[in-house]
Amino acid sequence: MTETTSTDDSIVPAKTIKPDDRLLNPYRYPITDDAKRLLSSICEEVDVQQQAHKPRRRQRKATDLNTFRATVVAVMSDLVRQCIEGEIKGVSLSRSNDWPPVRYQSPIHNKMLAGVLDALSEQGLGYLQQTSGQWGFDGEGHLTSLRPTKKLQDAVRSAGLSYDAIGGGCGGEVLHLQGPQPRFGRAPLLGYDETPETNALRHQVTKVNDWLTTAELSVDEDLLSATDQFPDLGDRWLVRRFTQGTVEAGGRLWGGFWQGMKKDLRRKALLIDDEPAVELDFGQAGARILYGIAGVPVPDTDLYAVPGFEHHRDGVKAALASMTFANRRLVRFPPGMKAKFGKTHTMNKVVKAVENHHRPIAHLFFTGAGHHAQRIESDIMVETLVRLVDLGVTALPIHDAVMVSRASAAVAGGVMLDVFEKKAGVAGQLSSFPVDVLKECIADELCGG
Question: What is the mean pLDDT of the chain?
Answer without folding.
Answer: 90
